[in-house]
Write a structure and sequence with these properties.
Order of helices and strands of chain A: HHHEEHHH
CATH class of chain A: Mainly Alpha
Largest interface: A-B, 35 and 35 residues
Largest sheet of chain A: 2 strands, antiparallel
Number of domains of chain A: 1
Oligomer: homodimer
CATH architecture of chain A: Orthogonal Bundle
Bound molecules: FE2/S2 (inorganic) cluster
Strand content of chain A: under 5%
Structural class of chain A: mainly alpha
CATH superfamily of chain A: Winged helix-like DNA-binding domain superfamily/Winged helix DNA-binding domain
Helix content of chain A: 40-55%
Chain lengths: 149, 149
DNA sequence: AAATAAAAAGACCTTTTTATCTTTTATTTA
DNA sequence: TAAATAAAAGATAAAAAGGTCTTTTTATTT
């Protein structure tokens, strides 16, 4: 449904929202390490997110990425839109050219409520609100801590 | 979530279930045309499905693909398992290494019920039953008929 | 038996996605 | 001002997914 690129971007941005700020910027390397994604790839993605004003960056020593108040008002939807395109969230589960109730595929009426639900989740809360909720509810952005094997 | 390969395989098999039988076999070409998928690609997929005893085939003139009573007892799950692997239906929506309620990602509790639902749909009905339901409820396997533009 | 129709098998090609590497630019600090 | 640090930009590479083509095998029809 979502590309890896989008998934990396979402998790990394939420991580950034929780752990960085204008006063405490973070380098790509640190973030990539923290949530276990390939850092040069993440660097590319972050470039796009900066461009889309979803996150901010400053070059040089003591530089890095962070999220301003303004940035934090963007949504997870905005991330997806800028990496994959929003249509990726609305494709037919079985690959029909369109997903709509007029011409439903065999699983449309199972899939459609889910899609509405997740779209709402990604659209109706700002990244800052979403991030707070994630932290409050003890959701995970990585399972790195489980690699005890 | 599912690869195109799986989607093609599911749609084509359901089409076969509805339109072919031991007495009325169908060639790849006809099926591919009917549901609008690339025929050499579908040929490959059907090879795998024959191997997995999900569909049957006879070579030569008057040959083609069809579904026996025995075949019809398989499930859509079996198709997915043989093309993509079932794990594709159980991956974390945001790409965490595992999807489980002990270590949920930010959207786990939205995604998990949907996954259970769709898995049930694909597992608890035989392909023949599923196909009948699809026909009875007027679900579509292609939107070819809409290409009036 | 010869011609033909269709699947099986496997090699091959193309595009997209994922990932890396290198150079440049901006900023800070010593 | 020089050295160091970190992002920006862009070229490149590797892998996976998607798709095509050719040859072989099998069955049927004439
Ligand atoms: S038509 Fe297939 S999911 Fe809506
Ligand atoms: S943990 Fe992400 S969907 Fe279950």
């Amino acid at each position: 449904m979502l590309s890896r690129a989008s998934k990396y971007a979402i998790l990394s941005t939420l991580y950034l929202a929780e752990h960085a700020s204008k006063e405490k910027k973070m380098s790509v390397k640190k973030i990539a390490e923290a949530i276990d994604v390939p850092s040069p790839f993440l660097a590319k993605l972050f470039q796009q997110l900066v461009h889309a004003k979803i996150i901010s960056s400053i070059k040089g020593p003591k530089g890095g990425f962070f999220i301003t108040k303004k940035n934090g008002e963007k949504t997870v939807c905005d991330i997806i839109e800028n990496i994959d395109g929003l249509h990726k969230l609305n494709e037919c589960f079985l690959g029909l050219n369109e997903c709509d109730g007029e011409n439903p595929c065999p699983v449309h009426f199972i899939v459609e409520p889910f899609k509405r639900n997740i779209l709402g989740k990604f659209r109706d809360k700002s990244i800052m609100e979403f991030s707070k909720e994630v932290a409050d509810n003890g959701r995970f952005l990585t399972l790195k801590h489980l690699d005890l094997d």
